[in-house]
Design goal:
The chain is of the alpha/beta class. It is built from nine helices and ten strands. It has a six-stranded mixed beta sheet with strand order 7-6-5-8-9-10, with helices on both faces. β3 and β4 form a beta hairpin. α2 packs antiparallel against α3. The N terminus is likely disordered.
């Protein structure tokens, strides 16, 4: 009778409705530091990590060390050069940052349109990987990770929302905006520390506001170690910052030109001149100083974003 019972049992189960279970695989990116604060990018395995949720151990399904996340794009894809011509053997990575925190709604629309024009002129496959970030009122968001697919970047760009920059509208937030902008650079440095070669950060927008000693006094002294640490993070991660701000208001340009002319200087060569409108390129502490310290450059008061990025 056993075989008969077994057959009957199998028949009962076959008539039962199937049970479907859906689970979500969560990917966690982890940066590891040793006791001296130095990042660790090799010698780690899955067994070195424990993941808990609400204090309950979770299963680790897979593990990928930093070494496997290395771009294989080389300058061989650029006409007239080969991989051996590049001392790193790889093309620099590009990080596009759209500045929604420090731009008006109209300015941000202009910046986004300019970046779209630039990307539209590129080949289907970029010569090196690029990612796209957006800094806003509350956080730095990644809208597209590293890819060589131009259409992926365009798709991400088209889905970046326009948000009212409420912190830009109130001067009480100037210090906070400056802090957020510098923090964003630190996050980018930490994110890219484990990747070899250079990374070019193309910051499209004004960047954080300047902090002038006339307004902030000795408070700025406390910012010096903070800025020094941020610069070190960028340099150690081999990040070069290029700030591209297509233009200032016409009235501001006239004020700047008049002020510089009165001082007997040429406007185009006096990019650090304070034109009295909280311009981020002036003051005792300003955002473009990170360009100077990291080997990058500052481009503003220009209309041709394509050429500015090419020069970067």
């Amino acid at each position: 009778p056993m075989p008969i019972l077994a057959a009957q049992s199998q028949q009962d189960f076959s008539d039962a409705p199937p049970l479907k279970v859906t689970s979500t695989l969560v990917t966690l990116d982890v940066t590891v530091f040793d006791k001296n604060g130095q990042s660790v990018v090799s010698g780690l395995s899955k067994d070195d990590f424990k993941i808990t949720e609400n204090r309950q151990p979770q299963r680790t399904f897979s593990f990928e060390p930093a070494q496997v996340h290395i771009s294989d794009a080389s300058v061989s894809s650029i006409k007239g050069e080969s991989a051996k011509d590049n001392r790193d053997g790889r093309a620099p990575l590009t990080v596009f940052v759209l500045d929604r925190l420090n731009s008006t709604v109209d300015e941000f629309a202009q910046l986004r349109a300019a970046l779209r024009t630039f990307l539209s002129h590129q080949e289907d496959q970029l010569s090196s990987p690029a990612e796209m970030l957006v800094i806003g009122n509350d956080s730095l968001e990644m809208v597209q990770g590293f890819t060589r697919n131009r259409d992926d970047l365009l798709f991400a760009l088209d889905h970046v929302e326009t948000v009212l920059p409420f912190k830009l509208m109130h001067s009480d937030f100037d210090g906070e905006r400056a802090h957020q902008s510098i923090d964003a650079l630190e996050q980018i440095a930490v994110q890219n520390k484990g990747l070899p070669g250079r990374k070019n950060v193309i910051w499209i927008g004004p960047g954080g506001p300047n902090l002038d000693r006339a307004a902030y006094g000795t408070v700025l002294d406390t910012w010096q170690p903070y800025i020094h640490a941020a610069v070190n993070l960028l340099v150690n991660a081999r990040v070069s910052l290029f700030v591209i701000y297509p233009g200032m208001k016409t009235s501001d340009q006239l004020i700047a030109a008049d002020s510089v002319a009165a001082a007997g200087q040429n406007f185009s060569s006096s990019r650090d001149h304070d034109i009295g409108n909280n311009n981020p390129h002036t003051g005792d502490i300003n955002f473009p100083l990170f360009s100077r310290e990291t080997g990058g450059a500052l481009f503003y008061d220009r209309n041709d974003l394509d050429q500015e990025i090419v020069k970067s």
